[in-house]
Amino acid sequence: MVKNSKTEKPRKREPLVLELIPENLLREPIEYIFADHYRMRQIIATMDRFLIEGIYAQAPVDDDVIADMAVIEAYLRTELPPHIADEEEDLFPCLQRRSPGDHETKQILATLHQEHEEDFALLPSLIAGHEDLLAARPVAARELFETSVVRFVETQRRHVIWENNIVLPLARRRLSAEDMEKIGRKMAARRGLEYPA
Ligand SMILES: [Fe+2]
Ligand SMILES: [Fe+2]
To answer: Could you tell me the pTM of the whole model?
Structure first.
């Protein structure tokens, strides 16, 4: 059937959808973290697009943009903090224990730790800015919000590359089955989930 091109709405962009990570993957916590990084990259790509297209300049009216923005806000508020805690409290200390005398790894983990600290410093303004826009209010601290988004997008992109290409492969090689189970159990508890049988 031929559609009337005048009344048809322009084709919409794929919505931002973060797939749920299967709980079973908690038995392979490094792969769980790897899967989380894929979600993080989707968030960063959308924030970057919003920046480039000037979407952060005023409260959105487009339903698709509002939906994507709500996904970003929820991710920053509820998912990023436990992800960072997985790394800071479980993965990094364990990898460090399994890498005695490896100063290069120690240095890399120290840099990534500093970036986690910076994430926590940026999060309040990132979350508040998204909340303002979603509530159709002008962003209260607009300049701080925009510089925070720029900085976050910039650092996260590189941060995830380092974690995926250096830290996770090292952890796959150096951590024992017991380490993996311990980390997986802590990650499950952090999310109020049962460790998968
Ligand atoms: Fe990280
Ligand atoms: Fe990470």
So the answer is: 0.92
